[in-house]
Amino acid sequence: MSNNTCTMVTNEVRTRAMWRSRLGAALRTTLACTIVGCITLYCPVAIQRTLSFPALSYVVVIALVTEATLGDTVRGCWNALYGTIQGVVPGMLSLWLIGPARLSIATATLVVAATALVVVAPQSTHVIAKKIALAQIVLIYTFSSFNGVHKAEVLHPVHVAASTAVGAFASVLALLLPYPRLASYEVRKKCRQFNKNASERMKLFVKAFCAESNATANATMSRANSLTKKGTKILQTVKLMQESMQWERPLSIFMKPRYLNSSDRLQALELPLKGMEIALTSCPSFPVGVAGDENLKTLLLGLEEHITRALSQAKGIGPSESLTESETTKGDVSDNFLQTLHSATFPSGNDLPSFFFLFCMKLMDGRLTADHPQESKGATEKMSSAPVKKKSILGGWPVKINSERFIIALKCSLSLGLAVLFGMIYSKEFSCWSGLAVAVGMAFRREATFKSANLKAQGTVLGTIYGVLSCFVFQRLSNIRFLSLLPWIIFTSFLRLSRMFGQAGSASAIIGALIILGRKNYGPASEFAIMRISETFIGLACSISVELLLQPTRASTLAKIQLSNSLSAISECIELITLCSSIEEVKEKEKKLRGVLRKLGNFMGEAEAEPNFWFLPFHTACYNKLLGTLSKMADLLLFVTQAMESLTQDSQRVGIACTDLKKYLDGDLDQFKNMVSSSIRCLEKITLIKSLAKLEKAMNSGAITDGDVELGKAPNANAFKLFTADEEEIGKTISSFLQHSREVVDNSEAFEWDEKMKGQIILNLSAIGFCMDALIKQSKEIQKSVRELVQWENPSSQVNLCEIYCKVNALCT
């Protein structure tokens, strides 16, 4: 079968899977909405009076059912209950104390704002619980203020709670019929897909490694890249569903405990695959020298076959699943591979990518066949921690509120209060819609405010217009007009994953149509639609205004600050590269680095979506290059840690002290760290400069003299050595490390290493050498991108990073 035919078949399978997924989600959402519609429109009149807020029921359905599993919905129902406690109980107490007759516009606004502040402030409360509580608060006080003198103080909040319960009930029923959509089943399916994906990628990587020409290798890598993107999406899906599995605990007794930490297991496979890709892209040309060794090539193909068989037998669980092979067979493949490396010549600089590829192959094989006796126990303990999640929800009140949480809570409080105030001034009868637009759309974190408001406005208008047109088409068949929702929900389910609408726009579009088609006795649909759109605009305008007033710092500014933090975190991790170091400390720093880079990505996404106004446009392309380079460096640091940990353990296993290895390698490692880390520290300071004009102004103010900034005389000016030295000088550091590593291997008889151990040591040292070389190259890429960024921000200035750093350093000292 040709490559084009394979691609067509793959695309067809992917399209069918996407349609099944979208249709399944749309049909369950439609079923839940139909249940709510039947209950609120066709139940006995006495029940209809109790369920007087069908809009809230639909909002709950969209929040709980869309793209959800049964575990998600059960968790959502629990959060809906907690949200009801937060929203309805204080509402009943407030109405009893104040009295609906005395609930003026000003009083209602103050009570809504104060209650919202209390609801949003605790960090442990789930987003769904907060949204439902805020929506209930809006409905309770706006309707009580409008016609409270005609309603009993207690019954009105009870009606709100009943409408919430109907939405939750319909959501659970829709996820159970015709069969439950279980997170555990979805995780098993995704794990099988990932194992197949990983097997195909590894085969392509090995094929590229053994390629006889650059053209063949590039074509193979191109096919592997598309599989890599698919594998990343699968891994993200498994991570998202991991928590949902714990809410399906009664069904988990039929499931192996190791399924509960599948994302960790799959991530353990993803890292070696990522390393193979890095190694292949670093190869200067094909065929690589190592691939010419027929004996090694044969063993490499045997190792590939062994890994493929292990993945196929894992049955969707990932590494550490039982294999049908005998332990002898597994050991023979690995031992022969290492013994062949023992006879190979220690790699030169050009051979480092090839040996790093072999290191990643061995790493993947080790992670697949390693035994983990404690995992079952750990997973079981993790299962039993599900009730703790519920306790943390109820324990959200006595929390320490930091300044960031307080600002978020204050923003939500003011946005909701102003939306209710101006909504009631515009129209008391329809004032709830302005508040609901804020309550349901609140993110409780930083987001691209203008983009989010734009998507919600577009979705609301489109959904409302669709609802009005459906009412017109089915004006003589009002009893079945609800059926027109099905094509709309299917359509919006595809929009949900698009850049044009996203989740916010899709949800607003569905709710907009639902509220028009699921209503009765609200007057003409067109008039109601106009009033709702107007009130929604009021709510969104209030939300944007408060965001700009309380958090005026632009996302582009925050992205620049976070870029500096990312450079600092990278530098800290590089400084910890040493033999026999505390592995736990290193891993903790690397975990922190991942969080810092994730935050940088969030700020970049927000900055890209925000309007420029009179500011300089955000340099998206440059920031994307920087984030990609920093992420690659973070991956390389993981491999360094893995190789050093393995090197230390292997040495200690044969009774070699760390000091024996350190005396060979510490000098080269220290020189590498000083050169790379100090250079990145320089770039960290440069990225914090607001503009070169302000820097020159500070220079001219007399704070420093010209002699202080003379190149090479400012403190730490030599820190820029990595970026000023030529390739030959930089290459000496790696050459020296390889020379000393070769001496370590040559002394294998003194260290009493067997052939297998010697092969493993060669792989570990080669991996460290490759990562050192790659980190130097990536550091130089960062320097180029930072220079481009500074030039973008200062188009009329001549940019010399070394000179800029000297000026900044002189000012600081």
UniProtKB/TrEMBL annotation:
A Pfam family cross-referenced in the UniProt record is FUSC_2
Q: Which InterPro entries match?
A: Memb_transporter_dom
Provide the membrane topology annotation: Multi-pass membrane protein
Annotated keywords: Cell membrane, Membrane, Transmembrane, Transmembrane helix
* Membrane-spanning residues: 25-47, 53-70, 77-97, 103-121, 128-146, 158-179, 406-426, 457-477, 497-517
Q: What region holds the Integral membrane bound transporter domain?
A: 418-545
State where it is primarily located.
Answer: membrane
Indicate where this protein resides in the cell: Cell membrane
Superkingdom field: Eukaryota
Q: Name one GO cellular component term.
A: plasma membrane
The name on file for this protein is: Integral membrane bound transporter domain-containing protein
- Which source organism does the UniProt entry give? Stephania yunnanensis
